[in-house]
């Protein structure tokens, strides 16, 4: 069944089911085309004016993006930026659902209306380029496509001219692009007009209070996109160049990634948007039974603290005995994996400058890899192989197949890759044998990561990528791509000269970096100060906030990052880490104030229990949380891990309370967050209430601490 929705100068067909793409004859008479989201809230106008293609976006009639240019400049060829006419247009509507092997939401609805314009330049070359817009209830995506054609086969992009002309004077949360540390910077909040060249995702608040996020989806064989300020509130795509300045090397038929704008009435709506995933291709791994979310521990934090070293010698961390200790701890506490860094030869000396010395199959003499892999398997645990490359991509690729085959034989199920190198210093040998330096997020590294993903999938290996190309939803297509870094994580709290991550940092990440995909933040530090090892550093949170991060900062692979002995000192708090899942049936946002506080609830996949994580910045906050997400007329026990009354991230960070109380769906729970603090709650389902009993609304205030 079709229904005709008429808006402005065009008619848009919305369907309840997918129907075949077909030209709309009436549309070819106009140079302006309107496509509307299924719920009618988001509108995109695509227009050809004086031969130039452009678009604009409105939400409920309010301008979001003013007229913005589309097109390209090419290397040694005429630009694809004007002289266009529309030779055909096609429309279709999609309304479907699909299921994730793992994720924040098991069943994902996918509803959009699509417009495809076939453009052709009116000159002797008559080159063709399609622009495709998909308009969802939670935002828009658009991309460029080049069909096979005689006058455009192999070509090089000098600049992508895509613009985002933000309406009004909005503000943004962003980090700078093309800097030494790549994505690992603290977020700034400024007017859009004061943005420098910024990485995506970049999150924007409009003057009317709507929230947007500009990013990209399905980044394959193309450079990553940043946003360059072009004056006022105008942002323009800035592609990551090759070392010779060329932005992209393409061969038609081909297409760009999707340029995305997520749109929500409140900040929490960005977190529950699945637009990035919906713009990626469906799963290409037929059997996903080997892809399993889980939690891991590892020989990692002790190195960042300086207690042990990656390099060989008397303080080497990756020894057989030390690894067995972690395996025993993991097996005892129900963890799935043990990460071991520094196990392989190549760490001695300046390993960043000499990344080509790494071996990914040869362990140090004090690390018995086959014996440890067997030791772990016998205890229901798997080793996680760390593959730090120092950015030496060529060296890694030369060993990758052999190494992955070895890991598969040993029963290793996951790899943590690393690409520690700075600015545009990733070494590459060009076709003439010349050494060059590349950025982490250019087309060269995008191609490399694709090869790693596919090679790992062939060997049934899951991936945790550090120093990555930013996530763009490829985990839908390749669900072995589990998680990634791509922001300032926990490690900065161990050694950063600027004092580590401030308390507001984790309240910004869910609305920025995590909109791109899961993040391996490595939460769970209990010994929040380390006066003997790092007296000038500390973790700038309370202990209760470290627990809440397991719910707030999503990753299907979560690390319990602290040392085993520090968990042994707090067994009651450690119970939450043991209990909390990493795979979810559904996710809801309870409170969302970017840079201030956030509270998220998630239901475990295939189960009845819910988990809440609430965190704040440096200020104390009190929240009222209605428990309407719980099943009606069913009893639950709230197992609460909260800040004590005297808790404070600066003066008393380890003060916490563990308590339980009965709750129901009608309960309104008082949640107090200490300065720099948080609260984690497991809502454990119990017996159903007696038949016929009606629950009355109740409010549970914040309770005083109990004696410890």
Describe the structure.
This protein is mainly beta. It folds into three domains: 2-260, Beta-galactosidase, Chain A, domain 5; 280-486, Alpha-Beta Barrel (TIM Barrel); 525-708, TIM Barrel, CATH 3.20.20. Helices cover 15% and strands 37% of the residues. It has twelve helices and 43 strands. Strands 3, 10, 11, 12, 13, 16, 17, 19, 20, 24 and 25 form an eleven-stranded antiparallel β-sheet that branches. An eight-stranded antiparallel β-sheet has the order 4-5-6-7-15-22-21-18, with no helix packed on it. Strand 8 and strand 9 form a beta hairpin. Helix 4 (320-333) runs parallel beside helix 5 (369-378) and helix 6 runs parallel beside helix 7 (443-458). The radius of gyration is 26 Å and the shape is globular.
How far the N terminus sits from the C terminus, by CA atoms, comes to 64 Å
Shape category = globular
Strand content is 35-45%
C-alpha-based Rg, rounded: 26 Å
SS field, number of helical segments: 12
Key phrases:
43 strands, 708 residues, 11-stranded antiparallel beta sheet, mainly beta, disordered N terminus, Beta-galactosidase, Chain A, domain 5, 3 domains, TIM Barrel
Topology:
Blueprint (H helix, E strand, L loop, with lengths): L1 E6 L2 E6 L6 E2 L8 E5 L5 E8 L2 E8 L2 E8 L2 E3 L2 E4 L3 E16 L7 E15 L6 E9 L2 E8 L7 E7 L2 E4 L4 E4 L13 E4 L6 E2 L2 E4 L5 E7 L7 E5 L4 E6 L8 E4 L2 E2 L2 E7 L2 H5 L3 H4 L15 E6 L1 H4 L15 H14 L3 E4 L28 H10 L3 E7 L4 H18 L3 E5 L7 E4 L5 E4 L4 H16 L3 E4 L15 E4 L7 H4 L9 H4 L34 H10 L4 E3 L4 H5 L2 H9 L4 E10 L3 E8 L5 E7 L4 E6 L9 E8 L12 E8 L3 E7 L4 E8 L12 E3 L8
Helix pairs in contact: 4-5, 6-7
